[in-house]
Amino acid sequence: MMETVFVLKFRNDNYSLERGILMFVDNVKITVRSGKGGDGAVAFRHEKYVPLGGPSGGDGGRGGDIILKANEGMNTLMDFRYKRIFKAEPGQNGQIKGMYGHKADPVYIKVPTGTSVYDEDTGRLIGDLVENNQELVVAKGGDGGRGNIHFANSKNQAPEVAENGEPGQEKHIKLELKLIADVGLVGFPSVGKSTLLSVATSAKPKIAAYHFTTLSPNLGMVRLDDGRDFVIADLPGLIEGASNGVGLGIQFLRHVERTRVILHLVDMDPNNGRDPYDDYLAIRKELGNYDENVLKRPEVIVPTKLDIPGSEERMAEFKEKLSADADIFPISSIQHTGVKALMNHTSEVLSKAEPIHFDVQTDENKEYNFEPETNAFTIEKDPEYEHSFIVHGDKVERLLQRTNLDHQDGIMRFARQLKSMGIEDALIDAGAESGDSVTILDFTFEFI
According to the model, what pLDDT value does residue 157 have? Predict the structure, then answer.
């Protein structure tokens, strides 16, 4: 049975609430496959006034790339719940008369701004898409194979040799959305974050009097009378232990990373059985445990529910425990008291806040040191068949995939390359004799 909850939908540049399937998705895994390169052609000129002819096989075209492109109009990874596999087309094969094959068009996949991309197999961060229209190539298309026009020389003027196109890449990647909002609302459940969001913006989040009311982050746009505006996000589910996986907070703490200013809401209701200062310290601890840099950002402490009898006295006690330079703005969202002043003050704090710099791991700064290639291939005896050997290794397997075995010249060239790699001597050392079979991937040949 499919769960239904209150969800966010985009409407008229604001966020509204409707009942339906859970629409906010911020963590998905997908598979991408780039296109194979086109095969090079084996062809010869047959023209009336070109008596010697000669090779004229063109190169294959490059396979299509898989490219992620940031789109600020998206706010969820929901689309990837229904489509998880993306494929690019292969490049066109080479043609006669030296004509090259067309390269395949890249496949663009739109993702929300704020999406981090990880290699699912290694956990490495591939890239961070934080700007609108920013692109990231996650799977490169294979290079096209060379046609026989490239293999002619003085000893072999009519070569029947061509390369197959390079196979495309297949990768399993994880997309992790971290919402980009100027201001983040944090605090325990039911402190009034959703109420403040509904009053300060046009967002209409679901509001009720029980914990974990908000099951997904809510976004809204604050527009001030002087024309200033900023995006504010309600980040739900924070409770003590959230950074260690308690409650819903661990699912949404990542969104705090993108906010430049924190509005920390603290409940002043004297009847809730909790101490405001302890709550304040507990949330600060969870934020610091997740990312200590968050604690360095500007914070406005917002005591809430000042309309409840006894809340003023409780706030006075709370303020005595805070440092003298704490930035405090008490409000009552129900009565709209102090909300406008808080939004104006938040805008001023935001104007002075430092921009967030995103550190993205790339291979550009990686230092490479030359190391001799010691394990280019391995040889093992086939356990199922006597007098049969299997050769493994990325280099030799790639060589086979690029070799066109439809022509004798191509087979002989492949044999010479195997010998130059030392595979022939290694097979002899492993006990191979003439007549034994050797298998590389799905290709089996007789050893002589």
Answer: 84
Q: Would you list the DSSP string of 207-257?
A: --SSTT---S-EEEEEE-TTS-EEEEEE-----TTGGGT-TTHHHHGGGGG
For 2-46, how does the pLDDT look when each residue is reduced to its tens digit (9 = 90+)?
333 333 333 333 333 333 333 455 678 999 999 999 999 998 988
Torsion sign, CA atoms 118, 122, 126, 128: positive
Per-residue pLDDT for 160 more than 80? Answer: yes
How far is the C-alpha of 184 from the C-alpha of 33, rounded, in Å?
37
The binding site for GTP consists of 187-194, 212-216, 234-237, 304-307, 332-334
Sequence-separated (6 or more) residues with CB below 8 Å from residue 34:
63, 64, 65, 66, 88, 139, 140, 141, 142, 168, 169, 170
Crossing angle between the packed helical segments 408-420 and 394-402, to the nearest 10 degrees: 160
One-character DSSP codes across 347-388: HHHHHHSPPPPP----STT----------S-EEEE-SSSTTE
SS3 158: coil
Predicted TM-score (pTM) of this structure: 0.67
pLDDT for 343-401, tens place per residue?
A: 999 999 988 888 776 554 444 444 444 444 545 788 888 887 888 888 888 888 888 88
The highest-level CATH class for domain 27-177 is: mainly beta
Bind-site residues: 187-194, 212-216, 234-237, 304-307, 332-334
Please name the fold of domain 181-352: Rossmann fold (3.40.50)
Q: Are 8 and 24 in contact (CB under 8 A)?
A: yes
Q: How far apart are CA 54 and CA 148, in angstroms?
A: 10
Integer angstrom CA distances of residue 403 from 81, 102, 149, 329, 375: 39, 20, 15, 71, 22
Answer yes or no: are the C-beta atoms of 264 and 299 closer than 8 Å.
yes
Binding residues for Mg(2+): 194, 214
Residue span(s) of the chain under CATH 3.30.300.350 come to 378-447
